[in-house]
Amino acid sequence: MAEISPQIQEKRKEENVAATLEAYGGIEEKPTRSEILVWYLYELCSYFVHTVLIPIVFPLIISQTVPNPPEPGQGWFKSYKGLKCKQSEMQLYEGLVHRAIKLGHTNFSPLQWTSLSWLTGLILSAPILGLVSTLLDHGHHQHLIPASATAIGALFCLPAGFLRKPYIFPPYIAAIVAANTVAAATHARHLGLMIRAFTGPAIPKRRFPNRRSFGSWLSLYSTAAGCLGAAIMASFTDRMYSHSDHFTALWVVSIFSGLIWGFGMIHIFSTNRATFTSIDSGRKSFDVTHVVSIFGYPDALGSLAGVFLSSFMTMCVFGAGLLYAIGYVCVKSENVLFLFLVYFMVPLVFLPAAHPLQQVLRLDAEKMQLFGFMLSTFVSGFGFYYHGSVWHKSYLLLFAAVQGTATGLLHAFGRVLWLDCSPAGKEGVFSVWFSWARALGSCAGFAVATGVPGNVGRAFGVSFCAGIVGMVVLIFGNISSLRGARAAGHVIKSEKASPVHGDDHLSKGSVMSYA
């Protein structure tokens, strides 16, 4: 990473601390147990939008709006590996990968059509996020931003089946992607505010383990709750797809997804952790310097690269592995459900268990994120090396468990590392960058995995390279939670107490008292 002279770094730290103390000199209310629980609730009700609704449900719905695919060369009763297969299973695969949607001189498959719509939503969300970032950090009525985003996204889930035409789906998907990106940014920001309120805006180094423990605990359990919601929605999707009228059944899934997502607004209206301070007066509604302030923090830039690469890799492995299981290994429909359940349910056990392991080994967020990269790189490397072989069902389930755990670790600790690098008063703009980079990485990974579905080795190879690059960035970029927190002004050299929460009363016991 680019180095900044020690004098400039020290001056920036002093400025951050001074601004923090001026803006947040009053006592912030520590998060209550009910606030934490409803924050978990929103993850439960929204995580599946990114992991199930967009990459699974919408491609399936779009595949029902195009003509039936032609019979493949090997016939309907054999997979591309020559294994016996049911006609319905091969029709499912061919319906997803057959390029039946014509746009100009180019034909797109339902999977590629989803990728294009996903990218459109990210482009649409970019200027919105720029405006939102300033309002989140320096505006009034900040809770209206996630409420509006969630309401808009949930509403666009409802009319997905009104017209049985593929061309109507890009606006739907783009609106949902944009809304989910904004809502995810506000959700990550709320985590940063709770961590700051618990530890204080500026703490001595000896108290940094308290911040590390509390932030990791919240993020891990929140991700586990999200995995539970994703498992429920994936199971519901599989159950509804068994109906003869696939289109109507999947439309019901989309409607139900919107209702569940909207139910998550309980969190938004039951808690209001606003951050309007005395320094906000006179602030513009859109401040370019505030939006690009991230580029003054090298550790934050390195962390952002890790967020993009991790989301790219995990979605690429997920998409490529799922297509391989359906079209090549010809996994039975009930076993596809088992794959979903293993992928999303195993993290419910391993993510909470990762917190005490982290505390015993005294590992920072970047080391836990590095562990997630190692797990996912192992899976993608195995998939690349053995892509020409026929995988047994037990291996598929094993790697689904490992990859699901890796995905949860990368998301949970990538978010914590990012917030450690976010200065007080800038949680909004930093969370916006986090959310957009995560969504962009997932979109790119989905596009690579589904662009050429017959070449699964390429997708696994690209994922493997992304994992290696991610580990190189974390290791040789000298990315560190403590270093990032120092640069952001969260950790100070002085052994004096935090001006917000007094002396060293934050202990491991106080963290666990929330459990």
Automatic annotation (TrEMBL):
<feature type="transmembrane region" description="Helical">
    <location>
        <begin position="430"/>
        <end position="450"/>
    </location>
</feature>
<feature type="transmembrane region" description="Helical">
    <location>
        <begin position="143"/>
        <end position="162"/>
    </location>
</feature>
<feature type="transmembrane region" description="Helical">
    <location>
        <begin position="456"/>
        <end position="476"/>
    </location>
</feature>
<feature type="transmembrane region" description="Helical">
    <location>
        <begin position="394"/>
        <end position="418"/>
    </location>
</feature>
<keyword id="KW-0472">Membrane</keyword>
<feature type="transmembrane region" description="Helical">
    <location>
        <begin position="168"/>
        <end position="186"/>
    </location>
</feature>
<protein>
    <submittedName>
        <fullName>Uncharacterized protein</fullName>
    </submittedName>
</protein>
<keyword id="KW-1133">Transmembrane helix</keyword>
<feature type="transmembrane region" description="Helical">
    <location>
        <begin position="304"/>
        <end position="326"/>
    </location>
</feature>
<feature type="transmembrane region" description="Helical">
    <location>
        <begin position="116"/>
        <end position="136"/>
    </location>
</feature>
<feature type="transmembrane region" description="Helical">
    <location>
        <begin position="370"/>
        <end position="388"/>
    </location>
</feature>
<feature type="transmembrane region" description="Helical">
    <location>
        <begin position="248"/>
        <end position="269"/>
    </location>
</feature>
<feature type="transmembrane region" description="Helical">
    <location>
        <begin position="214"/>
        <end position="236"/>
    </location>
</feature>
<feature type="transmembrane region" description="Helical">
    <location>
        <begin position="40"/>
        <end position="62"/>
    </location>
</feature>
<feature type="transmembrane region" description="Helical">
    <location>
        <begin position="338"/>
        <end position="358"/>
    </location>
</feature>
<keyword id="KW-0812">Transmembrane</keyword>
